[in-house]
Design brief:
Blueprint lengths: L4 H6 L5 H10 L3 H10 L2 E2 L14 E2 L5 E6 L8 H14 L3 E4 L6 H11 L3 E4 L1 H13 L7 H14 L3 E4 L5 H9 L9 H13 L4 H4 L1 H11 L2 E4 L14 H19 L4 E5 L5 H15 L4 E4 L11 H14 L4 E3 L12 H22 L4 H13 L3 H7 L3 H10 L16 H10 L5
Parallel strand pairs: 3-4, 3-10, 4-5, 5-6, 6-7, 7-8, 8-9, 9-10
Antiparallel strand pairs: 1-2
Bound molecules: iron/sulfur cluster (SF4).
The site of iron/sulfur cluster has 7 residues, from α19.
Length: 433
């Protein structure tokens, strides 16, 4: 069995994946290796796949962006998923997750992985639940073996990281019962497991058999993404005892994973009031000793369906500036429908904006240089460079062309009153009244 990136790093070995990530991030490879050895950086890299572009997640690295893809029971076209994948990659996603629940799940996953040049993640329990629903018409009839087998299947198929909801334990659920929530559990994996635990009267197999989960991940060097099955799905539910109890369990499991040579990151909320975002990130970092943190959003107000790429970008920027390492996008279709390719594009761009703004706030070397070059091009009225430097050059060009001014140097907003033009003309003394 080959060494995981974490085991290699501990032995002082520098892998090809580490070299590529270090070069991409302009980080000394030895520093990167030492952070991987400590568990503060992960490089998801399944030995059965090896993505074209590896992606490092964690301390001192650029904030990464994930796009969730996947079929539903109502929309199960592989072709659509490949269009969404193409949109995500072109928009600059660092990773995608296949969260399919409809159609031939294995065929969709394999098609996505074959076409995907970036890191791929998945949630194996969706497949175990879907198979149980088809076979028994009841997701709670899946067995612990079914759950473990789904993890193995996904790892063998080559996914680079898997979300496993190991923290939804009987004790954590008791916390939820003691203080009921507005939206109860909103994670699909969390909901399946809570129903399974309550129906079968047994402990969560992904928690009880965590050593087996680790063994599978170690074999394929799959990064564990410890899912927050009890993430708040309403502002009113944020930071309640159940969420914190689950975080405590996940922190302990994460330490076990690192000790066992398995790369690991933790997942986070969800819906969180703006004033709590920073606290939640700091709490997680404190409880885990600085392990990589992967957040969904967070969404900072519940009232903007249709614009949740914006609510989540606001939360994501604050979360990443406070130390979150990996942002899962949210699209304009969140809470409303399965996203299409256009939603995917919009969601990735919005999240990249949040990530970049946070990287500047974090003082990441080189992050602010991009903005400086844009500002210099703006001051010089160098429109070609401005468009090239835009996070979405196509949209920028479209807007500029749609409202063209008679004067090529300016835009139709201020025309001849353009501050840059006025300043320039005054300097050379040719300004006309
Ligand atoms: S015309 Fe106005 S909005 Fe357009 S570039 Fe000049 S100052 Fe900016």
């Amino acid at each position: 069995m080959s060494l995981t990136q974490l085991e290699s790093a501990r032995q002082g070995r520098i892998t090809e994946a580490m070299k590529q990530v270090a070069a991409d991030e302009s980080m000394d490879v030895e520093l990167l290796r030492s952070r991987i050895a400590e568990g503060k950086v992960v490089v998801p890299a399944n030995v059965n796949r090896l993505a074209t572009r590896f992606c490092g997640v964690g301390q001192g690295l650029r904030t990464k962006v994930n796009a969730n893809l996947g079929t539903s029971m109502d929309m199960a076209s592989v072709e659509n998923e490949l269009k969404k994948l193409d949109a995500a990659v072109r928009a600059g996603a660092d990773a995608v997750m296949d969260l399919s629940t409809g159609g031939d799940l294995r065929a969709v996953r394999r098609a996505v992985m074959e076409a995907c040049p970036v890191t791929v993640g998945s949630v194996p329990i969706y497949e175990a639940a879907a198979l149980a629903a088809r076979k028994h018409r009841n997701v709670t009839r899946m067995t612990g073996d079914d759950m473990l087998e789904a993890v193995r299947t996904h790892c063998r198929d080559g996914v680079d990281f898997v979300t496993v909801h190991c923290g939804v334990t009987r004790e954590v659920i008791q916390w939820l019962r003691r203080r009921p929530r507005v939206c109860d559990i909103v994670s699909r994996g969390g909901t399946f497991l809570e129903a399974w635990i309550e129906t079968n009267g047994q402990e969560n197999p992904l928690y009880e058999r965590f050593d087996e989960v680790m063994d599978i991940c170690r074999e394929f060097d799959v990064t564990l993404s410890l899912g927050d099955g009890l993430r708040p799905g309403a502002l009113a539910d944020a930071c309640d005892p159940a969420q914190i109890a689950e975080l405590q369990v996940l922190s302990e499991l994460a330490r076990r994973a690192i000790d066992g040579g398995v790369q690991v990151m933790l997942e986070g909320p969800g819906h969180v009031p703006l004033a709590q975002v920073q606290t939640q990130i700091r709490l997680q970092k404190e409880m885990t000793g600085g392990l990589p943190f992967y957040v969904l959003g967070p969404i900072v107000t519940d009232v903007a369906p249709g614009y949740d790429h914006i609510t989540s970008a606001i939360g994501g920027a604050i979360a990443a500036a406070a130390g979150a390492d990996f942002l899962c996008y949210v699209t304009p279709s969140e809470h409303l429908s399965l996203p299409n390719a256009e939603d995917v594009w919009t969601g990735v761009v919005a999240t990249r904006i949040a990530a970049h703004a946070a990287d500047i706030a974090k003082g990441l070397p080189g992050a602010a240089d991009w903005d400086r070059r844009m500002s210099e091009a703006r001051a010089a009225q160098d429109w070609k460079t401005q468009i090239e430097l835009c996070i979405d050059p196509h949209l920028a060009q479209q807007k500029r062309s749609a409202g063209k001014s008679q004067n090529e140097d300016v835009c139709s907003m201020c025309g001849d009153y353009c501050v840059f033009k006025v300043r320039k003309d005054r300097a050379i003394g040719v300004r006309k009244p």
